[in-house]
């Protein structure tokens, strides 16, 4: 049996870790670097492998099925004689399987299959299987097969990359700080998943030339590795967002990001509170000064030698948002643990670009602050001076994300990038306009549309939105500063935030702003390959855009 395995850091043990003791910091936010290692609890993901046959000891074989004109259709596995596949089909029909999208049916395995259980995941009409149809189905299967330690699957025949992403992302399990249930009846997440390469699945022929088969297998392995890296980076972002704010605050977060970047040989710069004040990062300082846990600015650079195009990434890193003096209502404030999801996405993306060896230079600029209503907090009515000199009138301290992003965007543009991608859980108006699953994308027209298209292609639904001139005029109408941090009008709140950010983008830089207030954090039940809590959106959108820029400029 030929097997290729690819995971972050080689072949790790179970990624579920026990919580570490809480770390308390000094009054000025300082903390010995040696006390910070990584996120206290990491989510479990299935250990994925690429193989040519069913591994010994496999608990469950997962196959694909469809809705046909005359009933259930089973995809040929390429592993058994036709008689065996027909008998699997007959068992599925007998228990009422229809092949409907995301329908999971489990039946006993036949002696000829060599596995105790066979599961079939429905993909709907065989003529209408899109990449995200497969991705979602794989995610549903990964969740539904809890209790089976090892799974092997042939669903990659219909799209290996989406199948890998969907199963790994759907199999993600974040245990939190609960005591683990080690009882015999506890259904544990899938530990290992083997994606089976067959001649029929990869080469599309029953007996291809040996050379063609080897070439197809090599290409499939490359697809497998890319998809696995994409999924692992999404899970890294999820781990960051899922970490409670008691343990993830600017100082600890900066060290976690630094460690992850250094592991890939990336250059890292971290500015502390005093350096931020000295260098004029007025927005980050203003937002972070109300907390006893002082702000940071992290810069991570991936610089391949042959790259001719540069991309700046910026992500909002508010590790907890009370609203500051403009205090939020208490109901659902706990969800503000996710207000750093934009920063998690860009940290994961720049590290992912390095792991994927994309031929594009990428620098992530990540402002980190905790927005608290302390005695030294900024006040409504303050005017702050940002990095680069632009001033903001602060009319609502709960519109703080754009204040830290303004500094970061101005600093990122100082590097003269060709493109700038910025993302944030920025406005409740995004949810009002587009709901909980669709990212609002604003910015330079062509680049905005390009990024939105990549989002839709990878299953992170995105929609291009304009920034109307009248909205810009409203945001730029302060009597005492260059810009207001909220508009006068109630409407177009998402676009008003985009208009504010545009003020800090340098001329000539193609840019886009992704508002992921809803898509980055799922407060409802799991669906597809999206778990409850952190989703990891928009990591895959950013990585797809970076890959496109690397290939096409």
Automatic annotation (TrEMBL):
Protein family membership: Belongs to the peptidase M17 family.
GO MF annotations in UniProt: manganese ion binding; metalloaminopeptidase activity
Protein name: Probable cytosol aminopeptidase
Domain spans labelled Cytosol aminopeptidase: 396-403
Positions of Mn(2+) 1 binding: 321, 398, 400
General function of this protein: Presumably involved in the processing and regular turnover of intracellular proteins. Catalyzes the removal of unsubstituted N-terminal amino acids from various peptides.
Named cofactor requirement(s): Mn(2+)
Enzyme nomenclature, EC number: 3.4.11.1, 3.4.11.10
Residues at the catalytic site: 328, 402
Cofactor note: Binds 2 manganese ions per subunit.
Compartment(s) of residence: Cytoplasm
Taxonomic lineage: Bacteria, Bacillati, Actinomycetota, Actinomycetes, Mycobacteriales
Reaction(s) catalysed (UniProt annotation): Release of an N-terminal amino acid, Xaa-|-Yaa-, in which Xaa is preferably Leu, but may be other amino acids including Pro although not Arg or Lys, and Yaa may be Pro. Amino acid amides and methyl esters are also readily hydrolyzed, but rates on arylamides are exceedingly low; Release of an N-terminal amino acid, preferentially leucine, but not glutamic or aspartic acids
Principal subcellular localisation of the protein: cytoplasm
Biological process annotations from GO: proteolysis
SUPFAM superfamilies (UniProt xref): Macro domain-like, Zn-dependent exopeptidases
PANTHER family documented for this protein: CYTOSOL AMINOPEPTIDASE, LEUCINE AMINOPEPTIDASE-RELATED
Enzyme's top EC category: hydrolase
RNA-binding listed as a keyword: no
Sequence positions that bind Mn(2+) 2: 316, 321, 339, 400
Keyword Metal-binding assigned: yes
A GO cellular-component term linked to this record: cytoplasm
Record's keyword terms, sorted: Aminopeptidase, Cytoplasm, Hydrolase, Manganese, Metal-binding, Protease
């Amino acid at each position: 049996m030929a097997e290729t395995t690819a995971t972050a850091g080689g072949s790790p043990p179970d990624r579920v870790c026990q919580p570490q003791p809480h770390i308390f910091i000094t009054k000025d936010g300082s903390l010995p670097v040696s006390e910070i290692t990584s996120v206290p609890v990491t989510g479990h993901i299935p250990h994925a492998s690429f193989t040519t046959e069913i591994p010994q000891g496999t608990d469950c074989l997962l196959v694909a099925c469809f809705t046909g004109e005359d009933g259930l259709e089973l995809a040929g596995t390429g592993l058994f004689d036709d008689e065996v596949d027909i008998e699997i089909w007959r068992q599925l029909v007998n228990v009422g399987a229809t092949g409907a999208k995301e329908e999971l049916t489990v039946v006993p395995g036949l002696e000829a299959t060599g596995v105790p259980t066979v599961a079939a995941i429905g993909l709907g009409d065989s003529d209408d299987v899109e990449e995200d149809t497969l991705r979602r189905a794989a995610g549903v299967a990964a969740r539904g097969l809890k209790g089976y330690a090892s799974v092997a699957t042939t669903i990659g025949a219909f799209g290996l990359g989406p199948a890998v992403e969907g199963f790994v992302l759907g199999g993600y399990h974040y245990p939190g700080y609960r005591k683990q249930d080690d009882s015999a009846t506890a259904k544990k997440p899938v530990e290992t998943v083997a994606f089976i390469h067959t001649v029929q699945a990869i080469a599309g022929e029953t007996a291809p030339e040996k050379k063609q088969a080897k070439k197809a297998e090599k290409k499939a392995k490359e697809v497998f590795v890319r998809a696995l890296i994409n999924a692992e980076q999404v899970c890294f972002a999820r781990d960051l967002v899922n970490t409670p704010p008691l343990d993830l605050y600017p100082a600890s977060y900066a060290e976690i990001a630094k460690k992850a970047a250094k592991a890939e040989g990336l250059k890292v710069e971290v500015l502390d509170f005093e350096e931020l004040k000295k260098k004029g990062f007025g927005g980050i300082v203003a937002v972070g000064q109300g907390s006893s846990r002082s702000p940071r600015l992290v810069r991570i650079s991936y610089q391949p030698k042959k790259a001719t195009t540069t991309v700046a990434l910026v992500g909002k890193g508010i590790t907890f948002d009370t609203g500051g003096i403009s205090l939020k209502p208490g109901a659902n404030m706990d969800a503000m643990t996710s207000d750093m999801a934009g920063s998690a996405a860009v940290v994961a993306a720049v590290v992912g670009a390095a792991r994927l060896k994309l031929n594009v230079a990428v620098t992530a600029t990540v402002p980190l602050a905790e927005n608290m209503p302390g005695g030294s907090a900024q006040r409504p009515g303050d005017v702050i001076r940002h990095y680069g000199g632009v001033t903001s009138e602060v009319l609502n301290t709960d519109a703080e994300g754009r204040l830290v992003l303004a500094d970061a965007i101005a600093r990122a543009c100082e590097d003269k990038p060709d493109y700038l991608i910025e993302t944030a859980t920025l406005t409740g108006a995004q949810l009002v306009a587009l709901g909980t699953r669709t990212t609002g994308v604003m910015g330079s027209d062509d680049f905005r549309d390009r990024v939105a298209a990549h989002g839709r292609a990878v299953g992170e639904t995105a929609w291009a939105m304009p920034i109307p001139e009248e909205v810009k005029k409203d945001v730029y109408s302060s009597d005492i500063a260059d810009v207001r941090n909220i508009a006068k009008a109630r409407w177009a709140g998402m676009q008003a935030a985009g208009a504010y950010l545009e003020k800090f983008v340098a001329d000539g830089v193609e840019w886009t702003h992704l508002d992921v207030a809803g898509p980055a954090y799922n407060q409802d039940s799991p669906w597809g390959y999206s778990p409850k809590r952190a989703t990891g959106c928009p990591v895959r959108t950013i990585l797809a855009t970076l890959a496109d820029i690397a290939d096409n400029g």
